Amino acid sequence: MIETLAAILVTVVTAATPLVFAATGELVTEKSGVLNLGVEGMMLVGAVSGFAAAIATGNPAIAILVAMIAGAVMAFLFGVLTLSLMANQVATGLALTMFGVGLSALIGQDYVGTPIKALAKLDIPVLSDLPLIGPVVFGQDFLVYLSLVMVAGVAWFLKSTRAGLILRATGESHDAAHALGYSVIRIRYLAVMFGGAMSGLAGAYLSLAYTPMWAENMSAGRGWIALALVVFATWKPGRVLVGAYLFGGVTILQLHAQGAGFAVPSQALSMLPYLATIVVLVVISRDSTRIRLNAPACIGKVFHPET
Asked: Looking at domain 2-113+123-294, which of 3.30.70, 1.10.3470, 1.25.40, 1.10.10 is its CATH number?
């Protein structure tokens, strides 16, 4: 019984980790006042780039770095279109997702079905062998622990640093930030590229650790769930972590339900994570006052610098 519970908890953690990375990056992006709906596309490009780098070099560190750079480049492209050329952020984000889906399929056509060795798990003598706690807490790979560090780091950055306060101020009133002499466009470029790098990292986790292989559309809608998580968390990093693990639990629940042979169509069970996303968004949207109080006031608005 304990071993089964431990196995379930381990899979919940692994299912939640890519959501933690992607949602944390998107939270920073939105805090700056930019709405990037291209998370899914950036995740896929990061996943295939990291996988290709892992095949070419055999070095997981280089593969992870390449995935982050690929995600950041995709985000930079989004920034050029929306921040410099002032294109509509929603339309551009959707186009970025479609572009990422197609580009990743093109790059990865020679890698489909090619397995690689998964990222090594932490193995601490005695601690990793403890019942339940050992495999869950001391038996994960490096990226799982990095995801927790990133959430804590972003929370500290936004709340306790001058740069974080400037970022938040830019998202709340870009005109006021500009009047105080801050470069709104530069700040938003950096925030957008950070979000892209985190999405690329989420993709790398999928192709290097979660399912160590490449398959087209392997993100399977996780980018959209990450976007919903930011709203669910009311733009607070700690709640992003909680929400990601809740959604990870729902994902694993449907897998175990299918394995247990419940008399429910597998397609219906596979819909559970996305159905949960819709239900959460509907419930949250009923409290419009809370959303207005927590959402950055300038999110999605084009900034026109004075000449």
From this structure: 1.10.3470
